[in-house]
Amino acid sequence: MASIGATLFASIALMSAYMSDITETDVMIRQAAEVVVAESEESRPPAPDSEVSAEVATTRVLGTFEATAYTAACASGCTGITATGVDVRNTTQHEGRTVVAVDPAVIALGTEIVVELADGREIEAVAADTGGAIDGRRVDVLMADYDDAIDFGRQNVTVRTINE
């Protein structure tokens, strides 16, 4: 029993010596780190008087889609009201963005997107409508009149989200 006590005592003494070494080393490292932090804070320019919070735009590329164009007027079945209730009888815009029809299984209704056309132009749009022929990776861009829709034609575009 005495040898167990002696072994235990020796182990505790060894651990204490080891811990004191770690503690001294930790203190030296911490002091060195505090000096580096203090020096870097001195070289940092002063903070502005007031903070300005800017919304950070985040985007996610959804990929290549086939794009076509449509108008709010048609021979039958069109009301000029989108699937989300936006009245487009006299405009192609909703809250400053062009209305597009999408497949809501691919792009959620209400999503703000950028449609990059084949010629490099970009249309900031909002997914506010659906359509019977809009299935999968397709977007249908709302145009002011029939001639604009015909001129737009059918093209491959890149679609990315805005502030997702």
Automatic annotation (TrEMBL):
Leader sequence segment: none
Cited SUPFAM superfamilies: Barwin-like endoglucanases
Residue ranges annotated for the 3D domain, each copy included: 99-162
Gene3D superfamilies associated with the record: RlpA-like domain (2.40.40.10)
Keywords assigned by UniProt, alphabetized: Signal
UniProt name for this protein: 3D domain-containing protein
Lineage, top ranks: Bacteria, Bacillati, Bacillota, Bacilli, Bacillales
